[in-house]
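> forwarded from #structure-qc
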């Protein structure tokens, strides 16, 4: 069967694959559009496997929020470069995946609007952009009698950026959603800036506390301090650790005076909502990913293989 320009255009419109790839797929499958699309999908999957060894430490974090703000999800998908993260197709895909994460636990196997799974959709985009893309993680927060406030730092698009925060708030009494969300957003911005590790002192593992004490006691011993002084130094170090790493003990960055727990008490006194911070999650794009060193020539070569 003759492969016409119209057939190539139809396949390209349907798959967004390159012109030459579309022509080759049609030639290999005697002009059959469905078979050619399947051919391109298989080619895309092979490209994805080939590129999967390359480190993806860039990309974007996206947040989706339900209409009533009782549920929110946060997703991180990594690319190799910021160039791809700014790609419209990448951002559209990420936005839809964040919405899928509102309702699904095992996001990667859920169906996309195209009918493919999320994994298949990512693999297809890999073949189009020529970079490794990885679905790294997803988190969902759901409130019973409260809401989930969110914050994206330096947003490149609504709900997308390189730092994201979910803050789960629960209220014991009736509350004004707008007022609670405004307060929650401020706390979320604080979390993005202050980087707490734990919600409260009770959340800090005893082993962590003992390790902090052990370090100070050893330092005090080296300095020849008496045991009672060393104990006081250890207590002071643990207190400082709480102030640095525990959300409720941190100084509220927007106030500069009150601790977060004091700001929360003041908000509850003002509103009568009796709000408690139930949980929080912060994602920083690419945190913990080790990116291998490569020279520019090797990097360019890797994209054209």
């Amino acid at each position: 069967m003759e492969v016409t320009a119209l057939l190539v255009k139809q396949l390209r419109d349907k798959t967004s694959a390159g012109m030459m790839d579309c022509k080759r797929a049609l030639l290999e499958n005697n002009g059959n559009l469905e078979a050619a699309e399947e051919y391109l999908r298989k080619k895309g999957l092979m490209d994805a496997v080939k590129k999967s060894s390359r480190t993806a430490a860039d990309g974007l974090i996206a947040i989706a929020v339900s209409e009533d703000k009782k549920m929110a999800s946060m997703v991180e998908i990594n690319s190799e470069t910021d160039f791809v993260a700014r790609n419209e197709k990448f951002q559209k895909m990420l936005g839809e995946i964040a919405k899928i994460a509102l309702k699904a636990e095992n996001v990667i196997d859920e169906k996309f609007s195209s009918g493919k799974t999320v994994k298949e959709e990512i693999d297809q985009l890999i073949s189009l952009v020529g970079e490794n893309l990885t679905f790294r993680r997803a988190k969902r927060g759901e409130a019973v009698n409260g809401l989930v406030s969110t914050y994206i730092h330096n947003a490149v698009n609504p709900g997308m950026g390189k730092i994201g925060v979910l803050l789960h708030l629960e209220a014991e009494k009736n509350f004004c959603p707008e007022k609670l969300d405004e307060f929650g957003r401020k706390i979320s911005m604080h979390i993005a800036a202050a980087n707490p590790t734990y919600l409260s002192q009770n959340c800090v593992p005893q082993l962590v506390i003992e390790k902090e004490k052990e370090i100070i006691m050893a330092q005090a011993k080296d300095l020849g301090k008496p045991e009672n002084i060393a104990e006081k130094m250890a207590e002071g170090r643990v207190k400082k650790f709480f102030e640095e790493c525990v959300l409720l003990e941190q100084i509220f960055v927007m106030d500069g005076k009150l601790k977060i727990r004091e700001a929360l008490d003041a908000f509850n006194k003002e509103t009568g909502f009796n709000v408690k911070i139930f949980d929080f999650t912060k994602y920083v794009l690419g945190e913990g990913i080790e990116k291998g060193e490569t020279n520019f020539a090797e990097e360019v070569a890797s994209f054209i293989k």
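QC bot note: Residues 33-51 form the longest helix (19 residues). Residues 299-305 have pLDDT under 50 and may be disordered.
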